User: Fold these one by one.
Assistant:
Number 1:
Amino acid sequence: MGANIHAGDATEVGAVNLRLATMQDLDALESIELSCFENDRLSRRRMSYWIKAEHGILVLAEKADEIVGYGLVILRKGSRSARLYSLAVLAKARGQNIAPALLMKLEELALNEQRLFMRLEVAEDNPAAIKMYKKLGYRKFGIYRQYYETGADALRFQKPIQQTNMANTMKYYPWYKQTTEFTCGPSALMMAMKYLQKNTRFDQATEIDIWRHATTIFMTSGHGGCHPLGLALAGHERGFEVEVYSTQVNNLFVDGVRSEHKKSIMRIVEQDFIEQAKEAGIRVHKNEIQLAQIEKALAKGFGIICLISTYQFDGKKTPHWVAITHADDRCLYLHDPDGGEGFYNETGTRLDRNNQSDAGESEDIDLDYQHLPILKEDFASLSVFGKSKLRTCLVIKPGK
C-alpha cells in the first residue's frame, strides 16, 4: 500500500489522541479510506480483518472526538521486521503533524512486539511523504516497479527502530569500515582498541598489518580470514590484554577448503598461533562465552569482538568478525565493519550487494552498520560458524 501524505504534515501537532482501532470504528475507517485514496483502497472487510488480526496493529488518530487518521502495520510471523501497510490523514487535519505521530506510535508498538525494523513502500511521485520518512530516519533501499494500480513505482524504505530508539543512550563507540573483503577481523579489533585507547591508529596500513599477523593464509577462496588467536596476538603486540573464548582452536576453517595442500599450510599457521599465544601468556578459554559474561565485560568498559556467520545476512556461510558495542535488556548491539550497500531482505536482515539488483541509491548507509541490534535470543544462532559449530569471542582490555 502507501501513504496519503501532503506537504503540510510536518508542522506543530495539536492535542491528538492515538489508540488502537475497534470494530466500532469501521464506519470512520471506511470514510477515511474513501476520502484519502482513489486507488489501492482497503475494503471494509479488510479493515475488519486487520482490527481483529493478531499479526496487525491498527492505530487511530482522534482530534476533538473525531477520527482523522489511521496507520496500519503488519507483523510477519518469524520476522524481526514490521511493515507499514497504510497511513492516511483526512485533508482537514493535515498540517498538524498527525502522520508522523501515528508512525512513531506504530514504531513503539512494533518494538513492543520484538520487531527491530520498520519497512514501508511509498509512491515515487509523492515527495511530501518521502521527505517525512527521511526526516523520521527511514532510508531508501530498493524499488518495486509498477507497484500501484496507477502504474507508479514504489520506493522501499527501512528504519532500524530499536537502533534508533537506543541511539541517544549509547556511549560513543568508534566505527571503522573495512577496506577489503577479507579484513573484517582487523577492522573489528581496531574498533575495540580505539574504544579503549583513543590514540589507536585507525587507517588501512594498520588494518593490513593486523591481517598479516592474524591471517590463516587460505579460506574457501581468495585471501585467508583471521584466526582468533592471531587477532589476540595482534592485540597483545599493541599493548592490550586479550582473553580468547573459543570452543576449538584447531582446524577452525579447514572444512571449507578442498585442497589438502592448503589445509596443511593452515594447520601449520594455526599451530604457530597456539605456541605464540602460550608464550605470550594469552588466556585461552576452550569454551563459548556466555551472554552474562559479555554483558559483564561491556559493563566494565572492555572491548569485545565476536565471530559470526553471515548466513542470516546474505545467505552465505562466511565467517565474519564484528564488535559488540552495547547490551540492554532486549538486545546486543554490533558494529559491523562490512559497510557494503546496506540493503535488507524480507526478514529485515542485510543482503549482500549482489543479491539486490534493483536497489535504489542508498543514503547515509554507514549508520546502518553501527549499533546494529540483535535480539539476545537470536545471538546464539548468529554467533556459530561451520560444521563444527565454532563459537569464539575476544575480550580486549587495556594493557597493564
Number 2:
Amino acid sequence: MALAHTTHQTDPMTETESIEYDVVVLGAGPVGENVADRTRAAGLSTAVVESELVGGECSYWACMPSKALLRPVIARADARRVPGLRRSVRGPLDAPEVLAHRDEYTSHWQDDGQVRWLDGIGADLHRGHGRLSGARTVTVTGADGERRVLTARHAVAVCTGSRALLPDLPGLADVGPWTSREATSAQTVPGRLVVVGGGVVAAEMATAWQALGAQVTVLVRGKGLLGRMEPFAGELVAEALEEAGADVRTGTSVESVSRENGTVVVVTGAGDRVEADEILFATGRAPRTDDIGLDTVGLAPGSWLDVDDSLRVTGHDWLYAVGDVNRRALLTHQGKYQARIAGAAIAARATGETLRAQAWGAHAATADHAAVPQVVFTDPEAAAVGLSLAEAEQAGHRVRAVDVDLSSVAGAGLYGDGYRGRARMVVDVEDEILRGVTFVGPGVGELIHSATVAVAGRVPVSRLWHAVPSYPTISEVWLRLLEAYRDN
C-alpha cells in the first residue's frame, strides 16, 4: 500500500485545488502537532490546517505565558521563606521585566519556530479556516478567499481545542471583558482586577496579577477555589491569596456588569458593588467545533465529540477527536497523551495492523480514566492525580483517605520557614492500591509524577514501602503517608 504521498488536482471551473493525503489534522496546537508527528513517523502523508498561530492556545495564551507570569511570583515567595535570602527580595516585582520575559516565551506571538518544526517532520501546513465538507474531506478557505479541498485516505483528526465560555450577561460585550487570552497577554498591569470564577485559570491569574501589583477581587459562585480537587487545596490557595492582599469572596454570583466612565462596575447577587479597571471571566470552556462542518457528517455543530479509547468518534470509522474537543481531560499534557494514542491507532488501522485495544495498551487512552495529573501553579502549588476522596466514593470504590501535614517532613522545613502544606492519598482498601493523590504546598508540582506512576501503575501499597524516598527531601512525605495508613 502506498501511504506517504499526496495527490494534487485543480478544478479549472472553480480554481479550487484538491489535494489527497493519508491524514488531515484540523488544528496545529500541541495536540494536532503530536498527531501529525506520530502519523508522519509511521510513514503517512499528513496535512495540518490552522487558522491562527501554529502552536495553539498553549503556546501563546495559556500554558507558556501563564507560567512565565507565575514563575517570578513563586520564586520570590519561595525566596522570602529562606533565612539569609528573604531580605534580598524585598520590594515589588519588576512588572515590565516580567511582562517582557512572558513575551519572549510566547515568541512575541510569532509562530515561525513552530512552522519550522512542522516542516521538519514533513507535514504540510495549510493556513486558513478548515471545515469538514463530507466524509474524509476538509475544505480550507485562506485569508485571501482561496479554497483548497483536502481529502484524507484514512483519517481526519479534529484537534481544534476549546475557547473561553462567557456567561450570558446583558451588556457584557460592551465591557470588553478579559478571558484567559487577555489575562495572559495583557501588556500593562491593571490597578484593580475582578476575577470571576474559582477554577485553575481564576486561581492562577489572581495569583499572578495580585503579585504584579493589581488589587484583585475574586468572585466565586461556589463554596471555594479549585472545586475539582480535594477541598483543602482550594482552602490553602484562598488563604494565601488573602494574605497577599486579594479579596476572595465565595458563594458570590454576578448579576450585572457595566463600564461607567472607563470603570468596570460589578453588582453581585447580594447587591454589593465592586469596581475595577478590568474584569476576567474564568467561568468555563466550550469546544471549538461550532464552525468546522460537523453538520456535513451528521454531528451537531458546537458539540463536544464522544470518542472511544482510541479517540475515534462514535459512529465514524475515519474521524478522530483529540484533546479538549472530546472533553475527557482539558489539559495540554493529556491532549498530547491522547495524540500519541490516536496517532498510533490511525497508523495501525492504515497499515492493516490489528489494534491492541486492551487496557494500558499502545492503542488505548486508559490514563484519561484513571490517572489524570494536574498542577496548579499558585502559591502554594496544588497538584493532584486520579480521584479525590469524594469522586472515589461516588464511583463505588471502598476507599480510605490518609492525610499528612507536609510541614512535618524534614525536607519541607528546609525548603522554607513556615512551610504550610498538606498531602492526601486515597487508598482502595480492597485492592490496596492508590485511587488518587493530592499535594498542596510550595514546590509540590515536582512531586506529582511519582504519584502519577503509582496510580497509573496500580502499584500495591506493600510495594510502595520499598520505593525509598531520599532524605531530606519533600518526597519523604510518601513515607509519612504510608506510616499513617499503617497506623490508623
Number 3:
Amino acid sequence: MKKLNRKVAYMLMTILLMVNCTMMGTVAAAKAVNGDSRSRPVSVAGGSGHGVAAWDDGSVTAWGYNKSGQIGDGTSIHQLVPKQVAGLTDIIQVAAGNHTSFALDKNGDVWAWGEYYSPYVSGDPLLPFQKRGGLTKLEGLKDVASLAISTHGSVALHKDGTATIWNETFDPNDPTKMTVKYFPIKGVTNAQNIVVAGHEALILGRDGSVGMITVYNSFYDRYRLESEFREVKPLVASSITGIASYWYDVFLLDKNGTVLQWNVNTKQKAPVAVKGLKDIKEIKTGYNRLFMLKKDGTVWQWNYNNPAAKPFQVKGLTGITALWGSKGHTGYAINKDGQLLAWGEEQYQGSGSLNEHDGKPVLVQPPLSWTVNGQEISFYSSSAIVKGKLYVPYTSVFKALGIKVKRGQSNPDPKHGNQGFPVWSFSYGGNTVSIKSSDPAVVLVNGKVTREDSSIPFLANTSMFPLELITSKLGIPMSWNKTTGEVILGTIP
C-alpha cells in the first residue's frame, strides 16, 4: 500500500511539474508574441534641446542637442538617434536641466553630465575640438528618492522625506574650476515631492498638503545656509496628489482631477483652479506649457503664457499610461504598448531625423548597435533615419567595410544655372556608387545614371549618406532590426 501511495504521489508530482513547465512556456511564449520582453521606459526628461530616458533594465539613453555634452557620449556632437550612456546601471530616474542630465540609481546615488559637469577635453587626436568629459558623481547626495531640476536650483528628495538643494559654483580666479555646493533644506520632513519655483521650494507632503519655504538669499545673492532657513509656510492644507513647476509658475493636481495654478512672483495669496480642466491624472511642465494626462489615456496641453490660449488635446496620443515634461517645448509619453513618444516644436526628439516643428508625436527610436564583418564597432558621429531609411556620415562604417570614400565636383550643370555640385563616390570590390548632391540628387552606378530616389541631407552638422542604397549597389549584405536597433553589415565569419 505504501509503495502504491508513493507511486501515486510521484505520478502526481510529475504531472504538476509538467503542467507548471507548460504554463511557464505558455507565458514565455505569450510575452514573446506580445513583445513584453522589450525594455520599457521608467523615467524620461528633457532639457532645452535634448532628451534622456531610463529603462526597466537599468540602462539610460540620451539624444538631441549635445553642445554641452548632455548626451553623455563624451562629445559635443548632436545625436539624432538615441545613444546608450555608458557607465550607468540600475538607474530608476533621470532628470534634465537646460543643458545638463542627471541619473538616480537604486542605491540612492546621483550622477550628472553636460555643461559644467562635462568640461572640454583638449588634445584628443580624434576629437580635438569636440571632446567632453564623462559622468560626475554628486558625492554630497546620498539615499536620494527622487530629483527635481530647476533653473533656480536643483533638489534631491531623500528616502527619509528630507531634502537637499544643490548648485554649481565657480572659482573667481579660475572660472574653469567648478564646485558643487549642497544645502540641506531645514524644516522639510515627510515630503513625497518637491519643486523649486523662483526663490521658493514647494513641498508636497505625504498627507497631500503643500508648503513653501524660501531657499534663496536675495540679499547675499546665494542659496540660504541651513541656519538661515525659516519655517515652512502652509499653502494648501490637503488633497493634492501632484505638483509641477516652470520658472515662477506652480501647478497642483487635486485628487478630484482638477488643476490649481499659482505664481510665486505675484501677490496672489492662494492657488486658483484652472477653468475647463477635469479628470486629470498626471501633470508635467515645459517651457510656458502644461502637459496633462487624463484618466481616459488622452494627453492635453495648455500654453498658459498666452492669455487667449485654451487647453487642447494632443492628436495622436491615446492609450497613454505615463507622462513627462522638459525644460523646452517637448513632451514625452509612453503608450500601453510600451513605446516612447515625443511631441513639440523642437528639432531633436529622438526620431532619427529633424522634425518639421509641427508638434505631431513621433516615435523615439531605440539606440543602434553596429556589427561589421562580425566585429562590433562604434563611431562618434550621429546616424539618421530619413523617410524610414538609414543614413550615416562618412566617418562611420565605410572604413570598417573597406569602402573607399571620395569627394569630387561635378561639371557645370546647365539645368541648374551651370552650377557645379559635390559628388561623393563609394568604391568597393570593383564597383562604384556616386551621388551628385544636386536637387534632386543623381545616383550613378559605375558611371551610369540610375532612377534611384535619394539625397545627401545635412544633419547634425554633417553630410549624411543613404547606407542601404550604397551597400545594396556594392553587393554588401545589410540587415537592420528596427525593433532592437541592431545593424549587421558585411559577412559574418
Number 4:
Amino acid sequence: MVARLSSSAIALGWLVRLRWHAALGQALTVAVATRGFGLRLPVLPLLALVATTAVSNLVLALWLRRAPTVRPALLGGVLSFDLLLLTGLLALSGGPANPFGMLYLVHVTLAALVLGPRWTVLIGLLAVLGHASLFAFYVPLPEVTGVPAGGTVASLHVLGTWLAFVLTALVIVFVVARVAAALKDRQEAVVRSQQFAARAEKLASLSTLAAGAAHELGTPLGTIAIAANELESLILEEPHEALEDARLIRDEVERCRDILERMSARAGRSLGEVPERTTTGAVLARLKEQLGAAELARLHFDAGPEELPLVCPVRGLVQVLANLVRNGLHASDETQGIVTVSARGDAERLRFMVEDHGTGVPRALLPRLGEPFFTTKPAGQGMGLGLFLSQTYAELCGGRLELASEEGRGTRVTLELPCRTEAVHVAG
C-alpha cells in the first residue's frame, strides 16, 4: 500500500529537521558572538528564545509521529511562530543592523514552495512587518570589546553579512532540493498507485466477465453433457461412428469446462491464494504438468545450478509461466524453434525467464504489450489478456514483468519476484 503523504506533511517533516539545526546554530552563534568577538548581548533572553525553538520542535516532532495527516494551516502556523522567534532574536542582537535578517527569506521560500498563495502572501507580509519592526524596537549592539588584530567594527559587520548570505543561500538550496525531491517521490508514488488501481479495476472487470460467462454457459453445457450421455446409451447398437461422435461431444464439453475454470482462475482466484513455500525446481515441475507432450517437446528447462527457495502464490505463478510459455511457442510456430525456460536469482530476488526465437515484436508495439485486449496474434487466436494478467500478478507480488524483443529474432520475458511475498488479494 502506498503511503499518501501530503505536501504539507513532507514539508513539516523537513522543517522539524531544519529547526533542530536552527536551534543548534542559534546557540552556537550566541556563544561565538559573546565569547569569540566579545559582544555584550543579553545572553539569557537570547538563550530563552533558542530554548523555546527547541522545546516547541520536540513537541512538534512527537505530535507528527502520531498524526501523519497535516493541514497546511499547521505548517503556516509553525512558519509564523518561527518568524516571531527570529524577530525576537534579531531585536535582542542589533535589530536592522544584524546581517542575519536575511534568514527571513528562508521562511518565505518554504511557504512559496509548499503552501498556497494565501499562506505565502501572509508569511511574506509577516516577514516584511517583522523586519520593519526591528527599526522601532531593538537592542543596539554595544561596542565590541575584543576585535581581532588589524580588524574594525565595519570589517566585522561585512564579515557577518557575508556569513549570513552564505548561510541563507545554503539553507534555501537545502530546503528546496530536499522538499522538491520528497514531493517528486510522492508524485511518483501517487502515479504508481493510480496505475495499480486502474489495473485492479480492469482485473475486477475481467473477473466479473469470467464469472458471468461461467454462470451463463454452465447450464447449457451441463444439458449438452446429459444429452451426450443419453445419446451414448441409446445408440449402443447403432454404427460405431455415431458412438464416437457422442463421446467427442462429451469430451469437448469437459474441455469447455476446463477452459472456463482456468479463465476464472486467471481472472482473480489464483491471485487471491495464500502464499506457499516452494522452490524454483518445484515450480518448473508443476509447470511441466500443465503442458502437453507436444509443447514439452519444444521446451528446454534450465533450473540453474541449485534450487532456490521462495514463498509466493504458487498456483498463480505456474499459470503465469504457462501463459508466457504458450506465447513463446506460438511466436515460434513457423520455425518450430526451442523455447527456453530458466530460473535464476539470489537470496532477495528470483527471475523466471522465457525466451523464444520466433518472429519477435516490433519496437513500436512493445510499450503496448500488457494492455488488456491488445494482442499481436492474428484475429481469433488471442485476446491479449495473458500478458496483462501476468503483469498484474507480478506487481501484486511486489515484482515486475519485463519484455525485451527484436523483430525477427525472438522475445525474452523476465518475471522478477521477491523471494518472499505477502498474501495477494484481488477483487473478484
